[in-house]
Amino acid sequence: MNEFVSVGYAAIDTIDGEDHFGGAAAGIALNAARLGLKSELISAFGTDHVSILYLQYLEKLGVSTQWSLQSPSFQLPQNHISHDDRTQGWVDFNLTTYLEETSIPTKTLANAHTIHLASAHFSWVEKILQTTHENVSFSPGPKVALDQRYAPLDILSTVPYVFVNEAEWQALQKYYQFTQPSDLIELGAQAIISTQGSQGVHIAYRDGQAIRTQRYQPDVIPNAETTGAGDALALGFLLARMHGVSISAALQFGMQAASEAVRSPGVILPPAAIQNLKKEIQTFL
User: Please, how many CA atoms are within 13 Å of residue 6, restricted to the half-sphere of its CB?
Assistant: First the structure.
């Protein structure tokens, strides 16, 4: 059984002119494997040299890619990230056009302990949730700001855990007239974790019949590189929940993972961060 399945993009993150293996789903799958989980990535790769190198890297670090798609029609997207010019962005080389026409092996998800939909294409999200809603967490990703299909209300209200950043939360407010994260809990989700930039992290969650809300202000880290910080928070939260940690304590561990992520560029945590988190999770058990 795969303990953890991450679904979404693998990509090349070009951060201030330097290329890194990236993509939310691939980064989460890699870090999950390095933290000791049996990890599976469902994504799409080409047959070009860069795609093959990335697949080899994933397998080397213990991530199964047996159910990822590989086609000469695909090319890894490129995400241009610059501290000086945030208008640079995502180039998907028409990958999304192909994804709508592909099938994914949803039967493999039946025995997964935790499934995380990390900025996955909306057509894949729909197909997966036709199979299961249990043990599923969901992050709509940046495209939700332009396309409501990336966060349909029936998905937001049925998956247990929803992760959004400030821009994604603003999109949900626009589409569904939410005023606060607890609105989503009232529809059926167990918890929504919203990173709000300088305002910290806001969580709303169900505790029996009550809805709890908390806000946390993380420590300020100089020269923080935020690429992948939200994904690290989500992984830390989910890892703690898989160990039976309470929702509020799981968020604390997720914030610790995010604080490790912002100390280096890219979505892949450095070895020292992995070792720190392996030690830190023991304090929550």
Answer: 32
Any idea what DSSP says for residue 111? T
What is the pLDDT, as a whole number, of residue 82? 67
Contact 254, 237 (CB under 8 A): yes
Q: At residue 60, does pLDDT exceed 70?
A: yes
pLDDT of 104 over the 80 cut: no
pLDDT tens for 207-259 read 998 999 999 887 777 766 677 789 999 999 999 999 999 999 999 999 999 98
- With contact defined as beta carbons under 8 Å apart, do 114 and 3 qualify? yes
- Which positions ≥6 away from 26 have C-beta within 8 Å? 6, 8, 9, 10, 11, 41, 43, 54, 58, 63, 267
**Residue count (the chain):** 285
Site of tokens 């039967």? 107
Residue 46 contacts residue 72 (beta carbons within 8 Å): yes
What is the spatial distance between Cα 169 and Cα 129, in angstroms, rounded to a whole number? 21
The two three-digit tokens of residue 12, written as one number: 């090349």
| ∠ CA 45-58-9, rounded to 5° | 40
d(C-alpha 121, C-alpha 136), whole Å: 15
Write down the pTM of the prediction: 0.92
Nearest to 260 by CA among 247, 246, 249, 276: 276
Q: Is the pLDDT of residue 22 over 80?
A: yes
| φ and ψ of 134, to 5 deg | -80, 145
Q: Rounded CA gap, 223 and 198, in Å?
A: 14
Mean pLDDT, all residues of the chain = 88
pLDDT for 1 equals 46
121 near 100, Cβ under 8 Å? yes
